[in-house]
Design a protein that fits this description.
Elements: E1 2-6, H1 9-17, E2 20-27, E3 30-37, E4 40-46, H2 51-65, E5 69-78, E6 88-96, E7 119-120, H3 123-136, E8 142-149, H4 157-167, E9 169-173, H5 176-185, E10 190-198, H6 204-229
Parallel strand pairs: 1-4, 1-5, 5-10, 6-8, 8-9
Antiparallel strand pairs: 2-3, 3-4, 5-9, 6-7, 6-10
Helix pairs in contact: 1-6, 2-5, 3-6
EC number: 3.2.2.9
Pathway: Amino-acid biosynthesis; L-methionine biosynthesis via salvage pathway; S-methyl-5-thio-alpha-D-ribose 1-phosphate from S-methyl-5'-thioadenosine (hydrolase route): step 1/2
Protein name: adenosylhomocysteine nucleosidase
């Protein structure tokens, strides 16, 4: 069983509609749709926005559905200089940029008393996602890089450049690293896929509304392509 998580309805609705033999299981206020997609056994769920929702959702996938891999799909703000709206970031790893225990000698982003704070995506899934994206989305570019997550919508240049300089972030969003941490603790392979809907700057809110649908079209095509090739 493969778990597929999106924070918002629009990030998973097209995938749920394409499922076959699906049934719904509700847990912790989330609807988990189990069935087949591209002849693969999958469970697709809308987690809700933010790190707590995402971590809880991932743990339910581990405990109740015994998933063997997790794909987190959605949109994000672009950070890396060459990334354009509509392009896709495939996670090399993920970190929570809003974790700050520096008063105790930790670096910003480091989670106290954990073995790591930079959670690495599965190398086979990275390779598959990159190859697939180049094939199914030839009209855009895809990049393998770091996803930085926090309970903040990034919409100013000062914070954007901080995330680039401090974390070498390729995109910023609000859930991925929480899924990555939960998957890491449960020893579940994962990948985070993010279509760029804005540039995480002063124009971010307006750009997001305008370009979200186009970004989701690319990410849905990628997820379906990955499942088709697994």
């Amino acid at each position: 069983m493969i778990g597929i998580i999106g924070a918002m309805e629009e990030e998973v609705s097209q995938l749920i509609e394409a499922m076959e033999e699906k049934e719904k299981v509700t847990c912790a206020g989330m609807d988990f749709y189990c069935g087949k997609l591209k002849d693969k056994e999958v469970v697709i769920v809308q987690s809700g926005i933010g790190k707590v929702n995402m971590a809880l959702c991932t743990q339910i996938l581990a405990d109740r559905f015994d998933v063997k891999a997790v794909i987190n799909t959605g949109v994000a703000g672009g950070l890396y200089k060459d990334i354009e709206i509509g392009d896709i970031v495939i996670s090399k790893d993920a970190v929570q940029h809003d974790v700050d225990a520096t008063v105790f000698g930790y670096k910003v982003g480091e989670i106290p008393r954990m073995d790591t704070s930079y959670f690495e995506a599965d190398k086979d899934l990275i390779e598959l996602a990159k190859k697939t994206c180049d094939e199914v989305n030839p009209d855009i570019h895809s990049y393998v890089g770091r996803v930085v997550s926090g309970d903040q919508f990034i919409s100013d240049n000062k914070k954007k450049h901080y995330l680039i300089n401090e974390f070498d972030g390729y995109c910023a969003e609000m859930e991925g690293a929480a899924m990555a941490q939960a998957a890491h603790l449960n020893q579940i392979p994962f990948i985070i896929l993010r279509a760029i809907s804005d540039k995480a700057d002063q124009e971010a809110a307006g750009s997001y509304e305008e370009f979200e649908k186009a970004a989701i079209k690319h990410i849905v095509r990628l997820v379906l392509g990955i499942l088709d090739r697994m």
